[in-house]
Design goal:
Helix content: 10-25%
CATH class: Mainly Beta
Number of helices: 1
Shape: globular
Largest sheet: 6 strands, antiparallel, barrel
Strand content: 35-45%
Order of helices and strands: HEEEEEE
CATH topology: Thrombin, subunit H
Radius of gyration: 14 Å
């Protein structure tokens, strides 16, 4: 495990940072209990404010899932279900940052 992967695992495990989540692949199969780190968006003084709660971002350790998250995978945390809209891999490959949309929104 790289130092970056270890740091991501530590952040996700910290109860003040990470949250419990359930991930379900859009292609089917069993659900998987994981930890995610919700990402706070930076404010942009020149852009319209995003609708709070409709779209969020979350980071997940790359080794927490059997593969790269895909569009329309489902993930639920903080009592809200989301669909994966897009996925970016960090430069070191230690985690994925997912843009999520409320399921049913």
């Amino acid at each position: 495990m790289s130092a970056f992967a270890a740091a991501m695992a530590t952040l996700a495990a910290d109860p003040n940072v990470g949250v419990d989540a359930t991930w379900i692949s859009a292609s089917g199969g069993p659900s998987l209990a994981v930890r995610v780190v919700p990402v706070m968006e930076e404010a942009d003084a020149f852009a319209a404010a995003p609708m709070i709660g409709e779209r969020v971002r979350a980071r997940i350790a790359a080794d927490a899932l059997p593969g790269r998250p895909q569009r329309n995978d489902l993930i639920a945390f903080n009592d809200v279900g989301y669909k994966v809209e897009s996925v970016q891999t960090d430069i070191r490959g230690a985690s994925f940052v997912m843009t999520l949309v409320k399921d049913g929104a």
